[in-house]
Amino acid sequence: MNNLAGDQSEEIKAKEEKRKIRVISEIDDLLAIQGQAYMKGQLKEALGFADQIIDLATPEDLKSFISEQRDLIAKIKGIQEERVEKERARLRKEQIKLKLEIIKKSKAELQQLEGEFNEVFLIEDFLKASEIIENAKIVLSKLKNEKLKKIWEDLEKKCSDAKIRKEIVKSANELIEESLELKKQLQFDDLKLRLSDLIQQTKEKGITDYLKKLEGVKADVLTAEKVHIKTTEKIEDLVDQIRTLREDKKFQEAVSNCEALIESAKSINRIEMVEEYSQILTQLQEALKFEELKNKVQILNNDGIDLLKKGGISSALEKFKMIKESITQYMV
Q1: Residue 121 and residue 127: Cα distance in Å, rounded?
Q2: What angle in degrees, to the nearest 10, is found between the helix axes of 146-184 and 63-122?
Q3: Distance of alpha carbon 196 from alpha carbon 178, whole angstroms
């Protein structure tokens, strides 16, 4: 029995020895392939083979293989980390280089845009100037440069102010030209309101030359308004006087006042009153002419009767003849 147990034990040992030899052979094969991968720089593949070798060596307790592979894994990972760090450093360098190139290119673009802006600004092409500013903003968005950003913010404000100033000047010129017609149309309130608004704008923007022009126009408007009010009051007074004089048959004074009223009405563009009192003037002149004829006829008639009483028949006839001629002339 002892011999049988001994034989079995020897057989088991022989099998284990064969298995270990086979495992070592597989490990040797993997080591050869791993060595080639490592030499080629295929570190990921070499790590894979290391894991396989450890998996084979562990059951057989092949400590030297396990230790060797763990050292290799640590070495490979160190190399990989070093490669990663080098790649990171390379990328950082490339990024810095690219950033510097972008900055250089962007600054050149901004310099060109600034030149174009100055050209169109001189000819007051504010639409084109605004387009250039928008293009500059796109370039500035690629930079983190507060100094350049401030320069273009100032240029944008300069463009906006100049555009507003141009619009104010245009409006001022139009209103100055229009003011003559508006004064004729007696639109004093509207004109004063618009002038005050533009005067305020010219003050705020420091457009001193047009401020003086507009203040001058406003002074003229205020004067014209005062004259209009005074003339209107005069006309109303003349209307009352003409009515009274007409009723009292003081046609000569009524004619004079009517003529004065018509001239005053013309001066403030009261066309309807000019037309109305031109007709009244004609009526008054006719009435005056008739009144003068009546007075003349009465005087000549009285003179003729007095001459007849004194026997001056020839002279009296002459007076009566003059009466006939005066009436004939009036009728013509």
Answers
A1: 10
A2: 30
A3: 15
Q: Which of 80, 66, 67 is nearest to 38 (CA)?
A: 80
What are the structure tokens assigned to 182, written together?
A: 């508006």
Q: Please, are residues 266 and 278 in contact by the beta-carbon 8 Å criterion?
A: no
The tokens describing 124, both together, are: 């007051």
Quote helix, strand, coil % in the chain, to nearest 5.
Answer: 90, 0, 10
- DSSP reduced 3-state for 211: helix
pLDDT at 7 > cutoff 80: no
Hey, what amino acid is at 331?
M
Q: Is the pLDDT of residue 3 over 60?
A: no
Residue 57 has pLDDT above 90, yes or no: no
Tokens for 57? 């060596």
Three-class DSSP category at 249: coil
Say how far apart CA 271 and CA 246 lie, in whole Å: 22
| Phi then psi dihedrals of residue 144, to 5 deg | -120, 65
**Cα 57 to Cα 69: distance, rounded to the nearest angstrom:** 10
Taking only the tens place, the pLDDT of each residue in 287-302 is 888 777 777 777 877 8
Average pLDDT of span 247-262: 91
- Please report the DSSP string for 180-196 in residue order: HHHHHTT-HHHHHHHHH
CA 61 to each of CA 56, 57, 87, 133: distance values in angstroms, whole numbers, following the listed order:
9, 6, 39, 76
pTM over 0.85: no
